[in-house]
Amino acid sequence: MNLESPKVTVDQSAEYLFNALSDVKNYEKLMPENIAKFEVLGDDIFNFGLKGMPEIKLRLKEGNPHTKVNLAAASDKLPFTLTANLESVSANATAVQLHFEGEFNPMMAMMIKGPISKFIETLAQNMNKL
Fold this sequence. Notes:
Elements: E1 2-4, E2 8-10, H1 14-21, H2 27-30, E3 35-42, E4 45-50, E5 56-60, E6 68-73, E7 80-90, E8 93-102, H3 106-125
């Protein structure tokens, strides 16, 4: 299952956004209002839970400086990646688009497609809070 957020433009440089997204503590600012839990577990891993959804651990993976930040599920139960693609528009503006990629059985994919789509859309819309 592959999902994409709408592309948003943030009034920050690509370098600033890359550094902000490479710090797991900053993801709390991006979370939707219905967040039930957010906990930093280490320099590269955090745990979050939304009301009515199971908790998810995300680990920061390798990225490409100033163009891409990769996160991956820390559990094999729900294997997926979340990638932030950064495209410099000008010295102080960056276009950001989130890509979600996961392998799920058809029943699971049908159940989570709506909530995950809304979730990554909210993360993208909240990028200006960084």
